[in-house]
Amino acid sequence: MILFECDYQEGCAPEILSRLQATNMEQTIGYSGDGYCEQARQLILRKIDAPQAHVHFLVGGTQTNTAVIQYLLRPHQGVLCANTGHINVHESGAIEHNGHKVLALPSDNGLITATQVRDAMEAHLHDPNYEHMVQPGMVYLSLPSELGTLYSRQDLHDIYAVCRHYHIPLFIDGARLGYGLASPHCDLQWHDLPRLCDIFYIGGTKQGALFGEALVICNPDYQKDFRYFIKQGGGLLAKGRLLGIQFLTLFTDDLYMRLAHHAIDEALRIRQALLDKGYTLYRDSPTNQQFAIFEDSKLQALQREFMFSFWEKTDATHTAVRICTSWATRTEDVNRLIEAL
What we know:
The chain is an alpha/beta fold. It has helices spanning 14-22, 35-48, 61-72, 86-89, 94-97, 114-125, 153-166, 177-181, 193-196, 226-232, 241-250, 255-276, 296-302, 331-340; strands at residues 2-3, 54-58, 77-82, 102-105, 135-142, 170-173, 199-203, 213-217, 280-283, 289-295, 306-307, 309-315, 318-324. The strands form three sheets. The chain has a seven-stranded mixed beta sheet, with helices on both faces. Strand 12 (309-315) and strand 13 (318-324) form a beta hairpin. It starts with a strand and ends with a helix.
């Protein structure tokens, strides 16, 4: 069985495994206070050209999202996001479990707009019953979105301008950030990110690490005491150097982006094959997540050899699925899929 179900089904990049093995018996202090974590922080800060930002290493995406949102919001506030957003549909109510409501905005392509954010803020401010309602207190975006789509530099500029106008923070979930930046359709650069949001994170779990995410707090107003929230949320790893070594390796010799470009190249080969062979795309994605609609009989035949993620039934006889490549996707497996299509 060849798995195209998601982008975290393999272990880690061989360079990381080698580095972990080579440093296995070293003694270092815990909780990301070691030299490897500091070297990784400095590489990331140079990459984004934001020397005053704070970098924290957490064990996973859900812990990162919950820690950030818990930190940023007051008890009466909620978080604005697309209705397809990860925190709204794929985190088992983790945000609500911590006492904050996810305020979902309608989206057909996984993205929300500055106008939607402005309208949501104005609707709350001008509702006579506003004190009886959850107040929008921040905005959450995913880059890429859960449908593989991308915000442009102008999109983020406009959304961030609205956030600053209403004095609410903008947080970008970058679980697949490298796959977004590697897309030929992306006009964002690393140095744009700290200037277009308050906080973002760089995904490792889905992009070549065994586990872990690197959170970057760009706005000094949100840097104080954040480590308390990491600890309370179960995201502070005692053996923190395991995270530092991984991100140090990923940001050495541009490994992170080389792995990301490989995933994008293979995904776009699949996309082109789907189009060439007459299949319908469920969503047009320029990143490592491709969405296709198959007649059920064809899908059943493909599933004898390949595994995809079910997305939705589009009608009585057709199903939309996600076909996902990763840093580790083998070219020969993509060739086999294209042949089977």
